[in-house]
Design a protein that fits this description.
Length: 699
C-alpha cells in the first residue's frame, strides 16, 4: 500500500526543476489546513534525516540527493582533530575538524561529500558508536577526573562522573564505559570506570590494556563454556564410521616449542616410480562445532585466534583448541586428510580429500627437525623411526619451493620477533624469530594442500571461501618502478605486471646495498590479502587458486572450508546445502577479513608496547640501524631486532626537502634515504604514546 511518504517522493521525482519549495509541494498536494501542512513538513524533515533529500537553508529550497553524494563509512580519528572516512571501495575521504560533527574514532557515520572537493566530506549523522569503552590512564589531579585514552585517535579525554571511579588511583590503567557522547568534539564525553587494570609496569597490565582496547578476551560466554565442558576427551569407536583409518601410518606434528593448538600433522611415502605420497592431516573441528551452536557463533564473532607475547586469545574454548581437536602425540584424533601424489618436478599428479582418524607418533619441534637436517646424531637417534621420512620431506619441500619460485612467488624478508622475559615479566631482549628450513617445510606442505583443496572447490563450482591477493595498487606500483629504475635495477614489464617481474627485482636487490629498501617499499606496494567468496587468485604466491584449509582451530574460514568439503565428500551437496553455503561463504569471508585486520592491529600494538618497554632500558645507548621510513617530518630508523624509533627533522640539523618518489630527505651535501645505514642513540621512550625517539649519532 502506497504511503504519503512514497507519494511525496514520486511527486518530487517528477518535478521539472532541480529545486522546489515546501509551498510548491503544498500546492501540488492540495494541502490547506495547518495540520495537513505539518504532516507534509514532518515527512520532508524525515526524508532529510534519511538523506534522501537536501534542504538549502539559505534559499529555503529542497532537492533530491545526487548519486554518490551521501554514503556510509567508518570514521578514523586523528589526534589533530580532523579525520578520514574509511570506505569499502578503498577511496578514503578527508574530514576537516570543523566537519566531524561529534564523530569519534571508529564510529560508523553517514557522510555527505563536500561540493567542489573530490576527496572531502562532512559527517552528517552518527549511525553507531565504535568505541563505547576506552582504555587509558586515570588522571584525577586538580580535583578533576579524566581517563586519558591510550588510543590517541580518540581525540578527547573521558570525564569520569563523581563516585564512578571504582576507587582507581591516579596513574592506573583503567577501562571506562562512556555514558554520554557530546554533540561536537569541543566537549568531553562522560563515563564511569568499569575495570581497574593496575599500574603501568605491573606484570601483564600492558598486555591487558591492549587486549581491552581491541575487545579481546580469553574468557567465553556461559553457553559456550557449558557446551565446551560437555566435549569428549577421547575419540569413540562409533565416531570412526565413514573415516579412513590411518592410525597405523607414521604421522607426526611439527610445531613450535610452546604450541598447544596442534591442528596439522604430516606424513610421507616414496612410491616405486619416484613420486612422493604426501599426507596433510588437519584437525576435524567441524565434527565438534555444529553450525549455529553457541561455540560456532562465538567463533564467527572472533574470526581468529590472536597471539600476544606469552598470551593467547583463542577462537575456540580450550577444551577444543588444547583438547579433543589438538593432534597430540599418542592419542586418536579425527582429521580431514588431503593426500597428494607429487612428482620430482613438484607437480601434483593427483590428490584426494577424505575424513580420517590418525594417531600421531611424535610431537616434533622445529628445533628438533632442523637438528636432524643439520646432521645432529643424537637427535637423529632419538627419532630414528622417522628420520628417513623427515629427510624425504626435506627433499620434497625443496622441490615444491623451487617450483613455486619458478612460477613467480615473491618471498619477502621475515621480520617476526620473539620477546625474552625475566621472572617478573620484564622484556630483557627482542630476538628475530627463527625461520629455518624446518619452518619452511611445513609452510610448503600447507600451501600445496591449500591449493589442492581450493582447486577441488573451484572445479566443482561449490560456494567457497578463498584466500585472495589482488595485484599491486597502480599508483604505488608506479612509485616502486621509478625507485627501481633510480637505483639501477632493471625491470621488464608490460602494462600488466606479473609476479615474476617483482620476484626478479627482489632477487636483483639482494646483490646490492638496497635490498632492505626494495623489500620494504615492495611490501608497502602490495595490497592486503583477504578472504572472499570470489576467486581472483593469489598474486604474492603466484597461485591461481588458493584457500585456507589447514588451521581450523584458530581460523574461522578454515572451518567453513571443512564443512563444505565434508558435505561434498559425503554426497550431501543438495540445492538447499548450496544455498546455505553461499550465504555462509559470503558472510564468513567478510567477517573473517574484518576480524583478521583487527587481530593484526592488536598483535602489532602488543609487540610495539613490548618493544617500548625494552627500549626504555636502552636510553643513552647507541646502535647500528637502517632507515625504515621517511616522511616530511623526519625519518624512522630500525635496529637489527626490529625496534624502531623516530628522528624528527629538527634533529637532522639543516633545511631538508622531501622527495616522495625517491623516499628520501635531502639538503646541501646530505641525503637520508630509505634503507640507508645510520648509527642512532636511544633518546627517550614515551610508553603512554608507545613512541620511541632516537638521536642521529654522527661520526
Amino acid at each position: 500500500m502506497e504511503t504519503l511518504k512514497d507519494k511525496i517522493l514520486e511527486i518530487i521525482k517528477n518535478i521539472d526543476a532541480e529545486y522546489f519549495t515546501a509551498k510548491q509541494l503544498y500546492g501540488i498536494l492540495h494541502t490547506h489546513s495547518t495540520a495537513e501542512r505539518k504532516t507534509v513538513a514532518d515527512i520532508l524533515h524525515q526524508l532529510e534525516e534519511d538523506c534522501e533529500m537536501v534542504f538549502d537553508a539559505r534559499n529555503r529550497r529542497y532537492r533530491l540527493v545526487k548519486v554518490g553524494e551521501y554514503g556510509r563509512a567508518e570514521f578514523q580519528g586523528n589526534p589533530r582533530g580532523f579525520g578520514f572516512l574509511i570506505r569499502e571501495d578503498g577511496e578514503d575521504l578527508f574530514v576537516p575538524a570543523s566537519k566531524t560533527h561529534g564523530a569519534f574514532h571508529k564510529d560508523v557515520v553517514l557522510y555527505r561529500r563536500v561540493s567542489g572537493a573530490s576527496d572531502e566530506a562532512e559527517v552528517v549523522k552518527i549511525i553507531s558508536r565504535g568505541m563505547t569503552q576506552i582504555v587509558g590512564t586515570y588522571d584525577k589531579s586538580n580535583n578533576a577526573r579524566f581517563v586519558i585514552p591510550d588510543d590517541k585517535k580518540f581525540v578527547k579525554d573521558v570525564y569520569i562522573l563523581p563516585k564512578r571511579d571504582m576507587g582507581a588511583k591516579n596513574g592506573q590503567k583503567v577501562v571506562a564505559q562512556i555514558t554520554f557522547f557530546p554533540q561536537d568534539n569541543r566537549q568531553n564525553p562522560e563515563g564511569e570506570i568499569v575495570e581497574v587494570l593496575g599500574f603501568p609496569g605491573e606484570k601483564n597490565v600492558d598486555m591487558a590494556a591492549v587486549a581491552r582496547t581491541y575487545r579481546l578476551t580469553q574468557d567465553f560466554p556461559p553457553d559456550c563454556k557449558s557446551q565446551a565442558e560437555k566435549m569428549p576427551h577421547t575419540v569413540a569407536e562409533s565416531e570412526l564410521i565413514g573415516r579412513r583409518d590411518l592410525r597405523a601410518c607414521k604421522i607426526f606434528t611439527i610445531d613450535g616449542e610452546d604450541a598447544k593448538d596442534l591442528d596439522d600433522a604430516v606424513s610421507i611415502e616414496r612410491n616405486f616410480d619416484g613420486t612422493f605420497k604426501l599426507g596433510v592431516h588437519i584437525a576435524d573441528v567441524s565434527h565438534y562445532v555444529n553450525v549455529g551452536s553457541a561455540i560456532d557463533k562465538e567463533a564467527f564473532n572472533r574470526g581468529t585466534s590472536v597471539y600476544f607475547p606469552e598470551m593467547v586469545f583463542p577462537m575456540l574454548p580450550r577444551e577444543l583448541s588444547n583438547g579433543i581437536c589438538s593432534l597430540y602425540e599418542g592419542v586418536d584424533r579425527l582429521t580431514l586428510t588431503c593426500e597428494m601424489t607429487v612428482n620430482a618436478q613438484g607437480k601434483v599428479l593427483d590428490y584426494d580429500v577424505f575424513p580420517s582418524v590418525i594417531h600421531s607418533c611424535h610431537r616434533l619441534t622445529y628445533t628438533a627437525v632442523q637438528a636432524i637436517f643439520d646432521g645432529d646424531a643424537e637427535t637423529q637417534a632419538r627419532y630414528a623411526d622417522i628420520a628417513v621420512d623427515l629427510l624425504a620431506m626435506k627433499e620434497l619441500a625443496e622441490i615444491l619451493q623451487n617450483k613455486r619460485n619458478k612460477r613467480g612467488n615473491i618471498e619477502f624478508a621475515s621480520k617476526e620477533v620473539t620477546f625474552v622475559h625475566d621472572d617478573r615479566g620484564n622484556v630483557i631482549d627482542v630476538v628475530l624469530a627463527d625461520n629455518s628450513f624446518s619452518h619452511q617445510l611445513i609452510e610448503e606442505f600447507m600451501i600445496v594442500a591449500n591449493e589442492c583443496v581450493a582447486e577441488y572447490a573451484e572445479n566443482c563450482s561449490y560456494p567457497f571461501v578463498y584466500r585472495v591477493h589482488a595485484k599491486p595498487d597502480e599508483e604505488k606500483l608506479a612509485l616502486l618502478l621509478k625507485l627501481l629504475e633510480g637505483i639501477g635495477i632493471k625491470v621488464k614489464h608490460s602494462q600488466e605486471i606479473h609476479n615474476s617481474v617483482l620476484q626478479d627485482a627482489l632477487l636483483q636487490a639482494e646483490k646490492t646495498p638496497y635490498f632492505n629498501l626494495v623489500n620494504d617499499v615492495m611490501l608497502r606496494t602490495m595490497q592486503k590479502a583477504k578472504y572472499s567468496d570470489v576467486n581472483i587468485g593469489h598474486f604474492g604466491l603466484a597461485s591461481r587458486c588458493y584457500c585456507h584449509f589447514t588451521s581450523p582451530i584458530r581460523r574461522y574460514p578454515d572451518l567453513i572450508v571443512h564443512r563444505i568439503l565434508k558435505t561434498a565428500i559425503n554426497g550431501k551437496m543438495t540445492e538447499k546445502a548450496l544455498r546455505a553455503y553461499e550465504d555462509m561463504a559470503y558472510d564468513g569471508a567478510k567477517q573473517s577479513s574484518i576480524r583478521e585486520k583487527i587481530a593484526d592491529e592488536a598483535e602489532r600494538k602488543a609487540d610495539d608496547v613490548k618493544k617500548c618497554a625494552y627500549a626504555a632500558n636502552l636510553i643513552g645507548q647507541s646502535f647500528d640501524a637502517l632507515i625504515s621510513g621517511v616522511t616530511e617530518r623526519g625519518i624512522y630508523a630500525e635496529l637489527p631486532n626490529t625496534v624502531e624509533g623516530f628522528i624528527s627533522i629538527e634533529k637532522l640539523g639543516q633545511h631538508l626537502s622531501y622527495n616522495r618518489e625517491q623516499f628520501c630527505l635531502y639538503g646541501e651535501g646530505v641525503k637520508y634515504s630509505l634503507g640507508d645505514a645510520v648509527t642512532v642513540t636511544v633518546a627517550s621512550v614515551n610508553k603512554q604514546a608507545c613512541k620511541i625517539d632516537f638521536d642521529l649519532k654522527r661520526e
